[in-house]
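Journal club side-thread
Mid-discussion, someone asked how the predicted structure for our own chain would compare to the paper's figures. Pasting it here so we can look after the session.
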Amino acid sequence: MPEEPNAEDPRGGADTRADFNANASDAESQREMRERVIRLVFGGDTRRYDEFIKALSDATPPDVDVILRGSAVTGHKFGTDEPFDGEGPGTSDMDVTFVGGDMVMLFREFHIPGVHSAPLSDEHPFASPTLAPLRKRLCEMTGRAVNLQATTSLVQFLRDWAMDQPYLVLVHKPKADDAKESAD
């Protein structure tokens, strides 16, 4: 179980981003999930996976992480044993979430207004017009639906703590100041 948030965060609030990243720090499980995603989604082609990650990274500002949840990570649908792509190639989608930063500001449909967006998906095609070209590109790259969502670090922390669902960290973009400090 993740540690409780640190109320002494110098940015003025709980340091849920650090807790989120700590939960994803199990290198072995991250490696296993990445290998599963490469096998299931990209047919074992690491180059295609790397191109997908680059497209996401290029579209992701500093202070935002990008995670993948769902059957692409676990190998089966939530709550069932139905395998990923159980109805044929390309029939399972990918659930990509931008965590932190101001990514929720790019959405206009929400599950929790201003905090946790509805996914830009076939069911919500106008949830984020700004991210629609990225979604289209990712869908073309994978040959399947790629749903894009945004949430705050706090919501991700609470989901992780309450639901204990596995996720793969696809992109980690520290704050610009943090990246500069680690380069020095």
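Post-session note: Strands lie at 64-69, 94-99, 110-112, 116-117, 146-151, 168-173.
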